[in-house]
Amino acid sequence: MARAARVTLQTLGVQHPEELDGVFASMTRERAEALIVVVSAQFFPERKRLADLAIQHRLPTMHTQAEYVEAGGLVSYAPKYSELFRQAPVYVDKILKCAKPGELPIEQPNKLELVINMKTARMLGVTIPRRFCCAPTG
Q1: For residue 76, which of 26, 61, 83, 100 sits 20 to 30 Å off, Cα-Cα?
Q2: pLDDT tens figures, 71-98
Q3: Can you tell me the distance from the alpha carbon of 23 to that of 95, in angstroms, rounded to the nearest whole number?
Q4: CA of 126: how far to CAs of 71, 78, 94, 117, in Å?
Q5: Which of 6, 15, 14 is closest to 33 using CA atoms?
Q6: φ/ψ of residue 86, rounded to 5
Q7: Residue ranges per domain, the chain?
Q8: What is the DSSP letter of 102?
Q9: Using CA atoms, how far apart are residues 76 and 80, in angstroms rounded to an integer?
């Protein structure tokens, strides 16, 4: 898809939070225009730092958790994880009633949530179309 859209993807594997400064410097040298942050439990505590570095390096960010946007990231389009976690007890109940876990259906989220940090958008000079940022009035 990236090739068809004439977008060059660069994958940067980061193993430790100490590597973030160097990775952002590398993205600046390579003239990256945006950043997709893949969820990682070890980087969740670093979400504010990630947002600050992205803003400092003028990189719009896409996230897979709204909490990253709440910490200063630009946008996320993802399931609302709190709703997904509410489904866990249903599966536990079925398993405790002797259902075989391998036979239970795999459920995928059927609702995704778009979260945009308008303050970050303004700081980066990103224009968000009105249909995405304003609730209908009336």
Answers
A1: 26
A2: 999 999 988 888 888 888 888 999 999 9
A3: 43
A4: 17, 20, 47, 11
A5: 6
A6: -70, -20
A7: 17-80+111-124
A8: G
A9: 10
